[in-house]
Amino acid sequence: MQEKGTISIHTENIFPIIKKFLYSDNEIFLRELVSNAVDATQKIKRLAQLGQYAGELGDTTVKVNFDKDKKTITVSDSGLGMTAEEIKKYINQIAFSGAAEFVEKFKEAKDANEIIGKFGLGFYSAFMVADKVEIQTLSYHDGAAPASWTCDGSTEFEIGPGTRTTRGTDVILYVNSESEEFLEKFKLQEILDKYAKFLPVPIQFGTKTESVEDGEDEEGKKKWKSVEVDNIINDTTPIWTKSPNELNDEDYLKFYKELYPFSEDPLFWIHLNVDYPFNLTGVLYFPKVKNEFELQRNKIKLFSRQVFITDEVKDIVPEFLMLLHGVIDSPDIPLNVSRSFLQADGNVKKINNYITKKVADKLSELFKKDRQAYEAKWNDIGLFVKYGMISEDKFYEKGKEFTLLKNTDGAFFTLNEYSDKVKAIQTDKNDQTIYLYATNVSKQDAFIQSANKKDYDVLVMDSPIDSHFIQHLEGKLEKTSLKRVDSDVAEKLIQKDDGYANLLTEEQSTKVKEVFEKAIANKTYSVEVESLSPEELPVTVTMDEFMRRMKDMAQTGGGGMSFYGSLPDSYKVAINGNHGVIDKILKAENEEEQAKLAKQAFDLALLAQGLLTGKDLTDFVKRSVGML
Ligand code: ADP
C-alpha cells in the first residue's frame, strides 16, 4: 500500500533553503551518500561479527553509478538496509534538536559542512543536486519486505513497497538541470578521489581497462590482452590506519608520493596514534623546503573515519606545524561547527598539544640518535623549529634542547653549548653576554674578520625568520643580547673597560668631525670620532642594531612594525681617531686635500659594507687609481 505523509520538520519547507544556501559546495552530496553507504556496510559486518546476523555477507562493495540519459546517479550498498519503519524514523524525522535552533544556525553558518553535520542532514544534501530522490532498500532482518521512499524536494514524501531483492540500499538521485555537470564520469571520479579515496570499504565506480597476461605466442613471448575490470577508487587500509611496526620507510614514502606526486621526498615523518583521551591517527611529514617563500600551508588533509573532510586544518594543528604535510584522522574533531567554537573546544586544544609534543619528541629523538645527520638536515628543519620556538612556549621548552646555532665556521651548537663557548670572552662590563651574528656572510666579511681577530665568534642568521628568532631568544636567554656584527666597530660591539686612550685633542676631534661631515655631505650619515685600536679601520659605517632589527622585522611582517619600515635608513660613521690616516688628514696641506682624503676613507668604509654602488663606486675606483 502506498502511504503518504509529511516530513516532520517545523520550519516551512527547508529544502529550498538548503539547496540555495549550500550551493557553493554541493559536491559534498556524494561524500554524504557514500559515507552513509559505508556506514551501513560496516554495521552489517559488525552485526555478523557479533553473531546478530547469520546470513551471508556476500560482496559488500559500495557501487556508484550514473546514467547520463536518465540523468540519475545511484549509490548502492549491501549494508544493513532499512525497513519502512526505519525509513520513517531515520529519514523522515530530520534529526535536529529543534526547528528554532536550525533556523538560527543556518543564518550564521558559513558553509554547508556546518549545517549538514550539525543537524544530521547528510542524506538531505542529495537535494542540492536532485529534483527527486528515491530510496530502494531491503533490511537484513529476517522476513523484512523491500521498501521504497521517494521525495521531490518538498516536504511531501511517498513510502511504499520496494523492488530490491538483495539486502542493502540504493539511493537514486534524479539530477536537476543545474547540476548536470555531475553526470560526467571525470567529475564524479574527481569528487570520489577527493573524498572517498581512503574509505574503509571498497567503492566501485564503473570499470577500467587493464592489461593482463594472455598465454604465450609461438616464440614463447608473453601475450597481453585488455580486459575491463571493476574500477575500485579507494585504498581501504591507508597507512595511518596501520600500526607503525607493520610499516617500513618505503611504505611511508610511497604514501607521500600518493598524496603529493610532485613533491621531493620528505625529510622524515611522525606516525600519530592515540586513543585516549581523544582519538587521533595520522602521519605527518616534514617536507624538504628550498626556501621559505616556497612554503605551502594547508597541505595537511583532515579525515574523519577515513572520510576526507578538509585541507584547512587551521586551529586543529598548531600554527607553526601548518607547514607540515600529511594526514590527520580523528572522529573527535567537531568538523561541522563554527571556527570560534573549534578554538574553544577542549579536544581541539588537547589535539594541538599532543601534536606539538609528538613533533618535539621526534625532533629530540633524531637529535639524540644521530647528531651529525640532524645537523645535516638543520637547514630544512631549522625553520620549523625556530617558528615553533617563537610561537609556542611549550615547544620552546622542549625545543631549546635541540635548537642549533650555526657559526660562520659552519659549526653547530645547542643554546647551552653556545653560551658556554662564548661566555668568557663575549661578556661585557655590565655582565651581558653578547652573541654576534651575521645576516650576510660575504657582505659582512670585513666585520666578521674584525670580530674574529678579537676572538669573538659570529653566528649565521641569514633566513627571514631569524630576525624574529633573535628577538625571541633575547627575551628568553638570561643576560644575553644579540648584535649584528656590523652594528658597531668590533671594539665597541662588546664594551669592556679596556678602551684605548684617545690620541686626539678635543680640538682635533672637532676638526676631524667637521672635515668628514663636509666631505660626506649627507644627513643620513652621522659622524662620530672614537678612540679605537690603531689596528682597526680608519672609518667604519654601521647601522644601529635596534633600528636595523626593527626594519628587518617590519620587512618580514612583524605586527605593528610597519612604522619602522617606513623610516629612511640611517647610519653611523665611526672615525677611528687613533688611526694613522686621521693623523694624515689633520696634517694635510689644505682643506681640499683633507676633504679628498676623508672622502676616500669614507668610501672605503662604504665599500666594505657593500654600500658603495653605481657612479659612486666608479668615481671611487678612478680616484684610487689616481692616487697610486
Ligand atoms: P547521519 O548519517 O548523520 O545520521 P543522514 O541524514 O545522512 O544522517 O542519515 C540519517 C540516517 O538514515 C542514518 O543515520 C541511517 O540510520 C539512515 N541511512 C542513511 N543512509 C543509509 C543507508 N545507505 N543504509 C542504511 N541506512 C541509512
From TrEMBL:
Statement: the UniProt record of this protein carries the keyword Nucleotide-binding: yes
Pfam families assigned: HATPase_c_3 (PF13589), HSP90 (PF00183)
InterPro entries registered for this protein in UniProt: HATPase_C_sf (IPR036890), HSP90_C (IPR037196), Hsp90_fam (IPR001404), Hsp90_N (IPR020575), Ribosomal_Su5_D2-typ_SF (IPR020568)
Keywords (A to Z) from UniProt: ATP-binding, Chaperone, Cytoplasm, Nucleotide-binding, Stress response
Gene Ontology terms for molecular function: ATP binding; ATP hydrolysis activity; ATP-dependent protein folding chaperone; unfolded protein binding
Highest taxon listed in the record's lineage: Bacteria
Keyword presence, Nucleotide-binding: yes
Residue positions binding ATP: 32, 36, 77, 82, 97-98, 169, 339
Family note: Belongs to the heat shock protein 90 family.
Protein name as catalogued: Chaperone protein HtpG
